[in-house]
Write a structure and sequence with these properties.
single chain; mainly alpha; three-stranded parallel beta sheet; 5 strands; about 5% strand; binds tryptophan
Length: about 325
């Protein structure tokens, strides 16, 4: 990645962000903002594709999400943070791109297919929902992003984007649009507190960046460990043990973790002791984030200004791309 790379990444504002987001993407964004030009989209339009009947949820969470960004150290001086619905060019680009995507193709998107199943939308899936990968292609191409840091579930979106880019440039004989490269995160994924593979707000197994200290303690003390480790003196299993998975990620003292693991496997180390250790580490990690989050939450005017400024900057870039796109499509009537 070089200074010339343009990064676009973002989140649907459907809930506050949790430790899984931190490990999977936020930590990386904090690092990348120093070496690349980074845009972060708060994808409210996309969130509405399956929450259209709950606008309050989306609106509230736009502010929750930006508080999380700022609290973990995303710096609005380095990263342009903006609200999707406030960039009209994104809707216009989506409209033009739709012509370039066969109807069967949108239905083949594996992530969309899984989501339709998981959200029980088979009976009546909104047209806007199946089309959201096209709108995501607009997000990515409007900023001429070269890099999109993603989790595995987003790979089909990049593939769809690049198909649109190639079709557009070929059909309209131009090089206006730029292909994006998906860059998979550090490969780290944090399991849920219940031991399930993924931490998710809808799964009820998340530790939120803004959780109060006592809530964090409670979640840690209730974490899934080795279900067969019934007595302290019994040998315990590390594999699939959530508490150790978290220690691997958050405890900087690797020798200590190794010693704990060996003791646990030998027997004689109780779950409660390991959980207390993890709790200390997570509290130390989350405390400064929570403090910053609370401070920002008290200054709504400052938050508004960050969003207004970021959105204005983003609008200029997206509008410029839209102008080029329309010129290529011969829609520049009175230019
Ligand atoms: N689909 C992404 C998610 O569900 C959010 C998103 C919208 C996005 N537009 C984007 C991510 C553009 C990267 C680039 O989290």
């Amino acid at each position: 990645m070089t200074k010339k790379d343009i990064i676009l990444t973002g989140d649907r504002p459907t809930g506050p962000l949790h430790l899984g987001h931190y490990v999977g993407s936020l930590a990386n964004r904090v690092k990348l903002q120093d070496s690349c030009h980074q845009f972060i989209i708060i994808a409210d339009t996309q969130a509405l594709t399956d929450n259209f009947d709950n606008p309050d949820k989306v609106r509230t969470n736009v502010f929750q999400v930006i508080l999380d960004y700022l609290a973990v150290g995303i710096d609005p001086q380095k990263t342009t943070i903006f609200i999707q619905s406030m960039i009209p060019a994104l809707c216009e680009l989506t409209m033009y791109y739709m012509n370039l995507v066969p109807f069967n193709r949108v239905l083949r998107n594996p992530t969309v297919k899984t989501e339709i199943k998981d959200k029980n939308m088979e009976e009546s899936v909104p047209f806007g929902f199946v089309a959201y990968p096209i709108s995501q292609a607009a997000d990515i191409t409007a900023f001429k992003a070269t890099i999109v840091p993603v989790g595995e579930d987003q790979l089909p979106m990049i593939e769809q984007t690049n198909e649109i880019v190639r079709a557009f440039n070929r059909i309209y004989q131009t090089d206006v649009l730029v292909e994006a490269k998906a860059v998979m995160g550090a490969g780290k994924r944090l399991p849920g507190t219940d031991g399930r593979e993924k931490m998710g707000k809808s799964l009820g197994n998340a530790i939120y960046l803004g959780d109060p200290a006592d809530v964090v303690t409670k979640k840690v003390m209730n974490m899934y460990t080795d279900p067969n480790h019934l007595r302290v003196q019994d040998p315990g299993k590390i594999e699939g043990n959530t508490v150790f998975a978290y220690l691997d990620i958050f405890d900087p003292n690797k020798d200590e973790v190794q010693a704990l693991k060996e003791h646990y496997e030998r027997g004689g180390l109780g779950d409660v002791v390991v959980k207390r250790r993890l709790n200390e580490i997570l509290q130390a990690f989350l405390e400064p984030i929570r403090t910053k989050r609370e401070a920002f939450a008290k200054d709504r005017a400052a938050i508004d200004q960050i969003l207004i400024d970021g959105t204005q900057r983003a609008n200029e870039v997206a509008q410029e791309t839209l102008d080029q796109v329309k010129r290529a499509m011969k829609l520049d009537y009175f230019a």
